[in-house]
Amino acid sequence: MPTSTPVVFIHGLWIHSDSWQDWMEAYRQAGYRPTAPGWPGDGDTVTATRQNAAAVADQGIEDITESYRRVIDTLDAAPVVIGHSFGGLIVQKLLAEGHARAAVAIDPGQIKGVKPVPLAQIRSGLPVLSRPGNKKKAVSLSRKQFRYAFGNAIPQTESDELFERWTIPGPGRPLFEASSANFHKTSPAAVDTKNNDRGPLLIIGGGKDHTVPETVVKAAYKLYSGSAAVTDYQSFPDRGHSLAFDNGWREIADHTLAWLTRQGI
Fold first, then answer.
1. Are the C-beta atoms of residues 67 and 39 closer than 8 Å to each other?
2. Alpha-carbon dihedral 181, 39, 234, 98, rounded to 10 degrees
3. Torsion on CA atoms 119, 125, 128, 129, rounded to nearest 10
4. Is 1 inside any structural domain?
5. How far apart are CA 212 and CA 13, in angstroms?
6. CA-CA distance, 188 to 62, in Å (whole number)?
């Protein structure tokens, strides 16, 4: 019999799973059993992943989601799933499919049906989307690109520190799949937002996010209006895309813990 609720943390594009270390400790102290597996091909460390970038190439949304389904299958109870960026898209899929008890999607990558495409989001995706050949490759961000996409709401020095500490090469395929989702009848970025039987979902948006601007996050939230299941939204107006792992991470983590308590989880 499980003694506490498992929690699976899912990172986003270009960030290593070790970035969840502080969250995992906070969740352990709150009585949960956290784990933070990497995406397929990720090394055990940031350095190992950087040294073998080819291992992460050509992994798509479905490949990544399936890897987490397999992780969940090894658990003794349905977990809470918490994801950032593309991880936020993946936790929505897992919740809708019945693989999770509850989900938190932080600045989630756009799901099928989301229509706004702000200029900031286009600029953030250009390192990948500007070259069609990147779909099957692993792509790394430069320090300057990270500053715009992730670190624009924090001091330059902190942005540079986070870049050195957590960034890894990421597969280009998920960005191509998400950006073209509305043009395909079937897309790995599709989520059943009408599901009435799923567990509760919390969606979090950052008001200064360039990679997934809040207009995109709110558009995803509105897609859930046809579901009777619990769907909550929380905005952090002064936060950018680094909100899950910069020096303000605790504010976000504490909000998610309080929300889970309100859900009785």
1. yes
2. 80
3. -40
4. no
5. 12
6. 6
Cβ neighbours around 27 below 10 Å, total: 25
Can you give the CATH number for the domain in which 216 is found?
3.40.50.1820
Residue 3: pLDDT band with limits 50, 70, 90: low
User: Structure pTM?
Assistant: 0.96
Tens digits of residue pLDDT in 37-89 = 999 999 999 999 999 999 999 999 999 999 999 999 999 999 999 999 999 99
The number of distinct structural domains making up the chain is 1
If DSSP codes are grouped into helix, strand and coil, which group holds residue 89? helix
The residue-averaged pLDDT of 195-213 equals 97
Provide φ and ψ at 117, rounded to 5°.
Answer: -135, 80
Two structure tokens written together for 173: 């395929």
Q: Which amino acid is present at 182?
A: N
**Total number of residues shown for the chain:** 265
Report whether 77 contacts 6 (CB < 8 A).
yes
**Joined tokens for residue 54:** 């080819």
| Domain span at 257 | 6-262
Q: How many Cβ atoms sit within 10 Å of the Cβ of residue 5?
A: 20
Kindly tell me the burial class for residue 93, based on how many C-beta atoms sit within 10 Å of its own C-beta (0-12, 13-18, 19 or more).
buried
Identify each DSSP E strand in 124-239 by its residue range. 138-139, 170-171, 201-206, 231-236
Q: How many CB atoms lie within 10 A of CB 30?
A: 17
Please give the single-letter amino acid code of residue 227: S
